[in-house]
Protein backbone atom coordinates (compact mmCIF):
# COMPACT_ATOMS: atom_id res chain seq x y z
CA UNK A 1 0.00 0.00 0.00
CA UNK A 2 1.31 3.47 -0.88
CA UNK A 3 1.95 5.99 1.87
CA UNK A 4 1.07 9.68 1.99
CA UNK A 5 3.99 11.85 3.11
CA UNK A 6 4.59 15.57 3.53
CA UNK A 7 6.68 17.43 0.95
CA UNK A 8 7.48 20.82 -0.54
CA UNK A 9 6.59 21.18 -4.21
CA UNK A 10 6.68 23.73 -7.02
CA UNK A 11 3.08 23.70 -8.34
CA UNK A 12 4.17 25.20 -11.68
CA UNK A 13 7.24 26.69 -13.36
CA UNK A 14 8.64 29.67 -11.44
CA UNK A 15 5.93 29.36 -8.76
CA UNK A 16 7.05 29.49 -5.12
CA UNK A 17 7.41 26.09 -3.48
CA UNK A 18 4.69 25.21 -0.99
CA UNK A 19 3.91 22.48 1.50
CA UNK A 20 1.83 19.59 0.14
CA UNK A 21 1.52 15.81 0.34
CA UNK A 22 2.65 13.13 -2.11
CA UNK A 23 2.26 9.38 -2.42
CA UNK A 24 5.21 7.04 -1.99
CA UNK A 25 4.86 3.54 -3.39
CA UNK A 26 4.63 0.49 -1.16
CA UNK A 27 8.01 -1.07 -0.32
CA UNK A 28 8.66 -3.74 -2.94
CA UNK A 29 10.83 -6.85 -2.71
CA UNK A 30 14.05 -4.96 -3.54
CA UNK A 31 13.11 -1.56 -2.12
CA UNK A 32 14.20 0.36 0.94
CA UNK A 33 12.17 3.01 2.72
CA UNK A 34 14.36 5.89 3.86
CA UNK A 35 13.20 8.42 6.41
CA UNK A 36 14.84 11.53 5.03
CA UNK A 37 16.68 13.60 7.62
CA UNK A 38 18.38 16.16 5.39
CA UNK A 39 18.05 17.30 1.77
CA UNK A 40 20.54 19.58 0.02
CA UNK A 41 19.49 22.38 -2.33
CA UNK A 42 21.33 22.14 -5.65
CA UNK A 43 21.38 24.82 -8.35
CA UNK A 44 19.88 22.12 -10.59
CA UNK A 45 16.75 22.23 -8.41
CA UNK A 46 16.29 25.87 -9.36
CA UNK A 47 16.89 25.23 -13.09
CA UNK A 48 14.30 22.45 -12.92
CA UNK A 49 11.70 24.27 -10.80
CA UNK A 50 11.79 27.22 -13.20
CA UNK A 51 11.81 24.96 -16.30
CA UNK A 52 15.06 26.72 -17.21
CA UNK A 53 16.41 23.63 -18.96
CA UNK A 54 13.22 23.10 -20.96
CA UNK A 55 9.85 21.48 -20.35
CA UNK A 56 9.39 19.95 -16.92
CA UNK A 57 6.74 17.97 -15.03
CA UNK A 58 4.70 19.78 -12.37
CA UNK A 59 3.90 19.66 -9.54
CA UNK A 60 7.59 19.03 -8.83
CA UNK A 61 9.22 17.96 -5.58
CA UNK A 62 12.92 18.76 -6.12
CA UNK A 63 15.86 17.38 -4.20
CA UNK A 64 18.56 14.87 -5.20
CA UNK A 65 20.93 15.26 -2.27
CA UNK A 66 19.18 12.98 0.20
CA UNK A 67 20.46 11.57 3.49
CA UNK A 68 18.47 9.63 6.04
CA UNK A 69 17.85 6.39 7.90
CA UNK A 70 16.47 3.11 6.53
CA UNK A 71 13.18 2.33 8.31
CA UNK A 72 11.90 -0.61 6.21
CA UNK A 73 13.42 -3.09 3.74
CA UNK A 74 11.83 -5.40 1.19
CA UNK A 75 12.01 -9.16 1.57
CA UNK A 76 14.73 -9.49 -1.09
CA UNK A 77 16.98 -6.67 0.10
CA UNK A 78 20.55 -7.70 0.91
CA UNK A 79 22.48 -4.41 1.00
CA UNK A 80 20.67 -2.58 3.80
CA UNK A 81 19.16 -3.19 7.20
CA UNK A 82 16.73 -1.11 9.23
CA UNK A 83 18.70 1.60 11.03
CA UNK A 84 21.39 1.99 8.36
CA UNK A 85 22.35 5.48 7.24
CA UNK A 86 21.55 5.75 3.54
CA UNK A 87 21.42 8.31 0.78
CA UNK A 88 19.91 8.88 -2.64
CA UNK A 89 21.54 10.95 -5.36
CA UNK A 90 20.44 12.14 -8.78
CA UNK A 91 18.97 8.91 -10.16
CA UNK A 92 16.75 6.13 -8.92
CA UNK A 93 16.84 3.66 -11.83
CA UNK A 94 18.29 2.87 -15.26
CA UNK A 95 17.82 0.18 -17.90
CA UNK A 96 20.56 -1.92 -16.21
CA UNK A 97 21.20 -3.74 -19.50
CA UNK A 98 23.09 -1.37 -21.82
CA UNK A 99 26.89 -1.30 -22.04
CA UNK A 100 27.09 1.82 -19.88
CA UNK A 101 24.92 0.37 -17.13
CA UNK A 102 26.91 -2.88 -17.15
CA UNK A 103 30.10 -0.82 -16.87
CA UNK A 104 28.81 1.00 -13.77
CA UNK A 105 28.06 4.17 -15.73
CA UNK A 106 24.33 4.27 -15.02
CA UNK A 107 24.38 8.05 -15.32
CA UNK A 108 25.00 7.58 -19.05
CA UNK A 109 22.38 4.84 -19.51
CA UNK A 110 21.69 4.47 -23.25
CA UNK A 111 17.95 4.57 -22.61
CA UNK A 112 18.27 7.43 -20.15
CA UNK A 113 18.43 6.97 -16.40
CA UNK A 114 15.39 7.71 -14.25
CA UNK A 115 16.04 10.96 -12.42
CA UNK A 116 15.20 11.19 -8.72
CA UNK A 117 12.59 13.84 -9.43
CA UNK A 118 10.80 15.31 -12.40
CA UNK A 119 10.97 12.07 -14.38
CA UNK A 120 8.70 9.12 -15.14
CA UNK A 121 9.73 5.78 -13.65
CA UNK A 122 9.35 2.35 -15.20
CA UNK A 123 6.03 2.04 -13.36
CA UNK A 124 4.71 5.09 -15.24
CA UNK A 125 4.65 7.20 -12.09
CA UNK A 126 6.29 10.62 -11.75
CA UNK A 127 9.31 10.67 -9.45
CA UNK A 128 9.42 13.03 -6.49
CA UNK A 129 12.62 14.09 -4.77
CA UNK A 130 14.08 14.79 -1.38
CA UNK A 131 12.16 17.84 -0.21
CA UNK A 132 9.96 15.33 1.61
CA UNK A 133 9.93 13.20 4.74
CA UNK A 134 10.37 9.75 3.15
CA UNK A 135 11.43 8.11 -0.10
CA UNK A 136 11.16 4.54 -1.42
CA UNK A 137 14.02 3.49 -3.69
CA UNK A 138 15.44 0.30 -5.19
CA UNK A 139 18.35 -0.86 -3.02
CA UNK A 140 20.63 -0.81 -6.08
CA UNK A 141 20.22 2.96 -6.32
CA UNK A 142 20.63 3.71 -2.62
CA UNK A 143 24.01 4.57 -1.14
CA UNK A 144 25.48 3.61 2.20
CA UNK A 145 26.56 6.69 4.16
CA UNK A 146 29.63 5.75 6.25
CA UNK A 147 29.54 6.24 10.00
CA UNK A 148 32.29 8.83 9.75
CA UNK A 149 30.01 11.30 7.95
CA UNK A 150 27.25 13.28 9.68
CA UNK A 151 24.04 13.07 7.66
CA UNK A 152 23.66 16.85 7.34
CA UNK A 153 27.07 17.42 5.71
CA UNK A 154 26.82 14.13 3.77
CA UNK A 155 23.60 15.05 1.95
CA UNK A 156 25.25 17.44 -0.57
CA UNK A 157 27.87 14.83 -1.41
CA UNK A 158 25.17 12.87 -3.26
CA UNK A 159 25.32 15.48 -6.03
CA UNK A 160 27.99 18.12 -5.36
CA UNK A 161 30.45 15.50 -4.10
CA UNK A 162 30.12 12.99 -6.92
CA UNK A 163 29.78 15.68 -9.61
CA UNK A 164 33.26 16.92 -8.77
CA UNK A 165 34.86 13.61 -7.68
CA UNK A 166 34.04 11.73 -10.89
CA UNK A 167 35.76 14.09 -13.37
CA UNK A 168 38.71 14.69 -11.04
CA UNK A 169 39.27 10.93 -10.91
CA UNK A 170 38.62 10.42 -14.63
CA UNK A 171 41.13 13.10 -15.66
CA UNK A 172 43.65 11.80 -13.12
CA UNK A 173 43.84 14.65 -10.63
CA UNK A 174 46.53 13.77 -8.12
CA UNK A 175 50.14 14.42 -7.12
CA UNK A 176 52.03 16.38 -9.79
CA UNK A 177 48.84 17.68 -11.42
CA UNK A 178 47.72 21.31 -11.40
CA UNK A 179 43.96 21.63 -11.05
CA UNK A 180 41.94 24.84 -11.26
CA UNK A 181 38.43 24.93 -9.86
CA UNK A 182 36.34 27.59 -11.57
CA UNK A 183 33.68 28.93 -9.21
CA UNK A 184 33.62 28.67 -5.40
CA UNK A 185 30.01 27.71 -4.76
CA UNK A 186 28.19 24.54 -3.77
CA UNK A 187 30.02 22.44 -6.36
CA UNK A 188 33.28 24.35 -6.40
CA UNK A 189 33.96 24.18 -2.68
CA UNK A 190 33.67 20.37 -2.82
CA UNK A 191 35.90 20.33 -5.91
CA UNK A 192 38.57 22.16 -3.93
CA UNK A 193 38.34 19.77 -0.98
CA UNK A 194 38.41 16.64 -3.14
CA UNK A 195 41.19 17.80 -5.50
CA UNK A 196 43.31 18.70 -2.47
CA UNK A 197 42.62 15.33 -0.83
CA UNK A 198 43.63 13.59 -4.08
CA UNK A 199 47.01 15.32 -3.83
CA UNK A 200 46.74 17.86 -6.65
CA UNK A 201 47.98 21.44 -6.55
CA UNK A 202 44.73 23.39 -6.42
CA UNK A 203 43.93 26.88 -7.68
CA UNK A 204 40.57 28.58 -7.31
CA UNK A 205 39.40 30.89 -10.09
CA UNK A 206 36.56 33.02 -8.76
CA UNK A 207 34.97 36.29 -9.89
CA UNK A 208 36.43 38.13 -6.90
CA UNK A 209 38.71 37.51 -3.94
CA UNK A 210 35.74 37.69 -1.54
CA UNK A 211 35.97 34.00 -0.64
CA UNK A 212 39.77 33.72 -0.76
CA UNK A 213 40.22 32.95 2.94
CA UNK A 214 37.61 30.18 2.68
CA UNK A 215 39.23 28.73 -0.43
CA UNK A 216 42.65 28.52 1.17
CA UNK A 217 41.17 27.02 4.33
CA UNK A 218 39.37 24.33 2.31
CA UNK A 219 42.58 23.24 0.59
CA UNK A 220 43.38 25.62 -2.27
CA UNK A 221 47.04 26.49 -2.78
CA UNK A 222 46.30 29.61 -4.87
CA UNK A 223 43.31 31.89 -5.45
CA UNK A 224 42.78 34.33 -8.32
CA UNK A 225 40.02 36.72 -9.38
CA UNK A 226 38.74 36.18 -12.93
CA UNK A 227 37.55 39.80 -12.97
CA UNK A 228 41.24 40.81 -13.09
CA UNK A 229 42.60 40.63 -16.69
CA UNK A 230 46.11 40.02 -15.32
CA UNK A 231 44.93 36.62 -14.04
CA UNK A 232 44.63 35.37 -17.60
CA UNK A 233 48.08 36.64 -18.53
CA UNK A 234 49.77 35.26 -15.45
CA UNK A 235 48.18 31.80 -15.60
CA UNK A 236 48.40 31.14 -19.34
CA UNK A 237 49.39 27.51 -19.99
CA UNK A 238 49.32 26.58 -16.29
CA UNK A 239 46.77 23.82 -15.71
CA UNK A 240 46.32 20.14 -16.47
CA UNK A 241 42.62 20.29 -15.56
CA UNK A 242 40.15 23.13 -15.17
CA UNK A 243 36.93 22.03 -13.51
CA UNK A 244 34.21 24.54 -14.34
CA UNK A 245 31.33 24.53 -11.87
CA UNK A 246 29.81 27.70 -13.30
CA UNK A 247 26.24 27.72 -14.62
CA UNK A 248 26.67 30.93 -16.61
CA UNK A 249 28.08 31.40 -20.13
CA UNK A 250 31.86 31.83 -20.16
CA UNK A 251 34.53 33.09 -22.53
CA UNK A 252 35.77 29.57 -23.22
CA UNK A 253 38.67 30.79 -25.35
CA UNK A 254 40.10 32.69 -22.39
CA UNK A 255 39.88 29.65 -20.08
CA UNK A 256 41.19 27.16 -22.64
CA UNK A 257 44.27 29.37 -22.94
CA UNK A 258 45.02 28.61 -19.28
CA UNK A 259 45.51 24.91 -20.04
CA UNK A 260 48.80 23.16 -20.71
CA UNK A 261 49.18 21.06 -23.86
CA UNK A 262 46.78 18.10 -23.58
CA UNK A 263 44.89 19.82 -20.77
CA UNK A 264 41.15 19.46 -20.26
CA UNK A 265 38.49 22.02 -19.42
CA UNK A 266 35.69 19.94 -17.90
CA UNK A 267 32.24 21.39 -17.43
CA UNK A 268 29.97 20.24 -14.65
CA UNK A 269 27.95 23.46 -14.51
CA UNK A 270 25.29 23.65 -17.22
CA UNK A 271 24.28 27.11 -18.47
CA UNK A 272 20.76 27.44 -19.85
CA UNK A 273 22.10 29.16 -23.00
CA UNK A 274 24.20 27.64 -25.82
CA UNK A 275 27.89 28.57 -25.93
CA UNK A 276 30.05 29.77 -28.80
CA UNK A 277 33.58 28.52 -29.35
CA UNK A 278 36.44 29.27 -31.72
CA UNK A 279 37.85 25.82 -32.43
CA UNK A 280 41.40 27.15 -32.72
CA UNK A 281 41.33 27.43 -28.92
CA UNK A 282 41.27 23.62 -28.68
CA UNK A 283 43.30 22.84 -31.80
CA UNK A 284 46.30 24.78 -30.51
CA UNK A 285 47.63 22.59 -27.74
CA UNK A 286 45.55 19.45 -28.38
CA UNK A 287 43.18 20.57 -25.66
CA UNK A 288 39.92 18.99 -24.59
CA UNK A 289 36.65 20.78 -23.88
CA UNK A 290 34.65 18.17 -22.00
CA UNK A 291 31.69 17.59 -19.76
CA UNK A 292 30.87 15.21 -16.94
CA UNK A 293 27.62 14.22 -15.27
CA UNK A 294 27.49 12.92 -11.68
CA UNK A 295 28.87 9.36 -11.42
CA UNK A 296 27.70 5.76 -11.38
CA UNK A 297 26.39 4.12 -8.23
CA UNK A 298 29.64 2.26 -7.47
CA UNK A 299 31.71 5.41 -7.99
CA UNK A 300 29.31 7.40 -5.80
CA UNK A 301 29.83 4.86 -3.03
CA UNK A 302 33.59 5.12 -3.60
CA UNK A 303 33.31 8.92 -3.25
CA UNK A 304 31.36 8.66 0.02
CA UNK A 305 33.95 6.27 1.43
CA UNK A 306 36.76 8.57 0.27
CA UNK A 307 35.11 11.59 1.88
CA UNK A 308 34.61 9.69 5.14
CA UNK A 309 38.25 8.56 5.11
CA UNK A 310 39.47 12.14 4.59
CA UNK A 311 36.90 13.83 6.83
CA UNK A 312 35.29 15.71 3.95
CA UNK A 313 31.74 16.96 4.34
CA UNK A 314 30.04 19.88 2.66
CA UNK A 315 30.12 23.34 4.22
CA UNK A 316 26.42 23.87 4.91
CA UNK A 317 23.81 26.32 6.09
CA UNK A 318 20.97 24.40 7.70
CA UNK A 319 17.50 25.82 7.02
CA UNK A 320 13.87 25.06 7.77
CA UNK A 321 11.61 23.99 4.91
CA UNK A 322 9.75 27.30 5.19
CA UNK A 323 12.96 29.04 4.05
CA UNK A 324 13.31 27.16 0.72
CA UNK A 325 12.06 30.00 -1.48
CA UNK A 326 14.34 32.50 0.22
CA UNK A 327 17.22 30.02 -0.15
CA UNK A 328 16.57 29.80 -3.91
CA UNK A 329 16.85 33.59 -4.20
CA UNK A 330 20.07 33.56 -2.21
CA UNK A 331 21.61 30.78 -4.35
CA UNK A 332 20.98 32.91 -7.44
CA UNK A 333 22.88 35.75 -5.74
CA UNK A 334 25.73 33.40 -4.72
CA UNK A 335 24.83 34.22 -1.13
CA UNK A 336 25.45 30.86 0.51
CA UNK A 337 28.52 29.26 2.04
CA UNK A 338 28.29 26.79 0.54
CA UNK A 339 25.25 24.56 0.39
CA UNK A 340 21.80 25.02 1.84
CA UNK A 341 20.52 21.86 3.51
CA UNK A 342 16.90 21.43 4.56
CA UNK A 343 16.18 19.94 7.96
CA UNK A 344 13.30 17.74 6.80
CA UNK A 345 11.90 17.52 10.33
CA UNK A 346 10.53 21.00 9.56
CA UNK A 347 8.46 19.92 6.53
TrEMBL record:
<protein>
    <recommendedName>
        <fullName>alcohol dehydrogenase (NADP(+))</fullName>
        <ecNumber>1.1.1.2</ecNumber>
    </recommendedName>
</protein>
<keyword id="KW-0479">Metal-binding</keyword>
<dbReference type="InterPro" id="IPR011032">
    <property type="entry name" value="GroES-like_sf"/>
</dbReference>
<dbReference type="InterPro" id="IPR036291">
    <property type="entry name" value="NAD(P)-bd_dom_sf"/>
</dbReference>
<dbReference type="GO" id="GO:0008270">
    <property type="term" value="F:zinc ion binding"/>
</dbReference>
<dbReference type="Pfam" id="PF08240">
    <property type="entry name" value="ADH_N"/>
</dbReference>
<feature type="domain" description="Enoyl reductase (ER)">
    <location>
        <begin position="15"/>
        <end position="342"/>
    </location>
</feature>
<comment type="similarity">
    <text>Belongs to the zinc-containing alcohol dehydrogenase family.</text>
</comment>
<dbReference type="InterPro" id="IPR013149">
    <property type="entry name" value="ADH-like_C"/>
</dbReference>
<dbReference type="InterPro" id="IPR047109">
    <property type="entry name" value="CAD-like"/>
</dbReference>
<dbReference type="GO" id="GO:0008106">
    <property type="term" value="F:alcohol dehydrogenase (NADP+) activity"/>
</dbReference>
<dbReference type="InterPro" id="IPR002328">
    <property type="entry name" value="ADH_Zn_CS"/>
</dbReference>
<dbReference type="InterPro" id="IPR020843">
    <property type="entry name" value="ER"/>
</dbReference>
<keyword id="KW-0862">Zinc</keyword>
<dbReference type="InterPro" id="IPR013154">
    <property type="entry name" value="ADH-like_N"/>
</dbReference>
<keyword id="KW-0560">Oxidoreductase</keyword>
<dbReference type="Pfam" id="PF00107">
    <property type="entry name" value="ADH_zinc_N"/>
</dbReference>
